[in-house]
Specification:
single chain; alpha+beta; four-stranded antiparallel β-sheet; two-stranded antiparallel ribbon; 28% helix; elongated
Length: 162
Amino acid sequence: MERTKKSRKERVLELVEQRGLVSFMNNTKWFELKRAVIEEMSFQPRYYWKLVDGVLDADDENFARTLNAYSYLGEDIWADKYTPDDHLSWDCFATPFWTIEWIKIVPKKREVLHSGRLIETKISEISIDATDQFVKILERYNIPYEEENGVYTIYGYRGSSY
């Protein structure tokens, strides 16, 4: 009996070919990036990605709004004890490196601190900018990237006309 249903990897590779995409990253570079962010950065930065098969982690409008405020969206993509080394995680799902068309990363974090229940509440804001630390990681591992307005784009694949 012939198998008619294609695996996700087969579908992704077919889309890469149909769209004329060229690989910019490999598993080694993705793994080095993931490991360095987990082990070397003071926090795990916010991100937004597009997968080759079209899956986005948030809508464009929401991402643009949160980029302007650079609020912290979570760290689950980077470190999850149940995620294999060759995957990035999103919520409880693991995303294999080979599915990532691009990822946009903002190496900044803003925290709002509230204090006091019995006395007047004091609200203070802390902003952490780990841009220099993040760029050093990218350069140390020769990870190609583009930067625009503090947003770092790393391409897993790009159009061949690039």
